[in-house]
Write a structure and sequence with these properties.
alpha+beta, globular, 9 helices, 26% strand
Length: 384
């Protein structure tokens, strides 16, 4: 067996306590291809943990059978900081309570950090350039001194993944169907098969790394960013990593009935990516056509009140359909207490809020359309 477990200590905020990541490793360190999987950087997104809970026995069996061809790194709980944030019985796992920062935003901009360093080192050999960039990226991340617990967590996770050939950041949404966020280059580098294999009903593709720098962007978009920054060199920089954010339905979809097939699909993805030996079988028929993030209709609450939905995740909707209503429970005339919220686009509704009190400006639904929406052009995909 080649499986090993590693504990990586993090900076801790409070005396008398500690923080650490548990990392499960399979295969031979440094072997290719390398796959990295982490669950629940948003620490209250438990379906992601369930998927890895079911995947790990499959990896153990593959390990015993000598089927691990490359290296697999699994972080079953990617955010012990957020996992501990319980306030009056409510788990708050999306934002760091000290810095008030979203745990899945503002990862290091590695491409900017290493571009000028690798410029004189690049060759006419694309494979060698990948090695040069990975070595520089690991060293640069290592040189960044984390100032606090949040940065310690983010820098450590990024270093574990930055040299991977496949990186899957496992999440869930509030109430949702299976969906996927991925960079365009990554989609063309195996992401289409990933989307089909996991049964995504909405796959949103970005062309550029956004200012938000979510984890999968920080890992996957480095190659496109370096190509752009170093285009004048004429040196080849391939897309050396297929990185994606996989959204495992809604927050309460924590069942073995969901998680076991999810794990089986992840195993097949790893086989198809050449990390595990064996035949994954044919790629399933895709359930959606990939769409740019500018084709994602986002509904915002126009006012506060009680939120009641008329459409469910997975529903096909038309422009003008009422997705939900916001009710003013204090209105004098309750027959006029409802404010309808309509969609401006045709498409598939893939996500909505789990809580039922709307606040002005709150994102209350997401719909995947099949073409860019004029009112969404130049808008950030990650606005919550």
């Amino acid at each position: 067996m080649t499986r090993s477990a590693e504990r990586i200590d993090l900076i801790c905020t409070s005396p008398g306590t500690d923080r650490y990541l548990t990392v499960q490793r399979y295969g031979t360190p440094g072997a290719r291809p390398k796959a990295y999987l982490q669950a629940a950087i948003h620490a209250d997104e438990i379906p992601a943990m369930m998927a890895l809970h079911h995947l790990r026995p499959m990896l153990d069996a593959a390990d015993k059978a000598g089927q691990i061809k490359g290296e697999i790194v699994v972080v079953p709980v990617a955010n012990p900081v957020g996992l501990a944030q319980n306030l009056a019985g409510y788990h708050l796992g999306r934002f760091d309570l000290i810095s008030r920062e979203n745990f899945n935003r503002n990862f290091l901009d590695v491409a900017t950090g290493i571009a000028e360093q690798v410029r004189p080192l690049l060759t006419d050999d694309a494979t060698r350039n990948v090695e040069i960039i990975r070595e520089a990226a690991l060293a640069w991340i290592d040189a960044q001194g984390p100032r606090n617990e949040n940065e310690s967590l983010k820098f450590t996770l990024l270093k574990l993944a930055i040299d991977a050939d496949t990186s899957l950041d496992l999440h869930c949404a509030g109430e949702a169907s299976m969906h996927l966020f991925i960079h365009e280059d990554c989609f063309n580098e195996g992401g289409a098969d990933l989307s089909a294999q996991i049964g995504s009903i909405a796959t949103l593709v970005s062309k550029h790394s956004s200012g938000a720098r979510a984890f999968s962007q920080a890992v996957g978009a480095i190659w496109a960013d370096l190509r752009e920054k170093l285009a004048d060199t004429g040196k080849p920089i391939p897309t050396a990593c297929m990185s994606a954010t996989v959204e495992y339905r809604g927050r309460t979809d924590v069942t073995d009935a969901f998680a076991k097939p999810d794990a089986e699909n992840l195993f097949k993805v790893l086989q198809r990516r050449g990390v595990i030996a064996g035949d994954p079988g044919p790629v399933p028929a895709p359930l959606c056509t990939p769409a740019p993030v500018s084709a994602m209709e986002v509904g915002y609450a126009p006012k506060t009140g009680v939120l009641t939905y008329h459409k469910n995740p997975g529903d096909v909707v038309k422009a003008g359909d009422v997705i939900c209503e916001i009710i003013d429970p204090m209105a004098e005339d309750q027959t006029k207490a409802r404010t309808p919220v309509k969609t401006l686009a045709d498409g598939v509704m893939f996500g909505r809020r789990p809580d039922r009190v709307a606040r002005p400006g709150m994102v209350i639904f997401r719909i995947a359309s099949d073409k860019p929406l004029p009112h969404r052009l130049n808008r950030p995909a990650l606005d919550d």
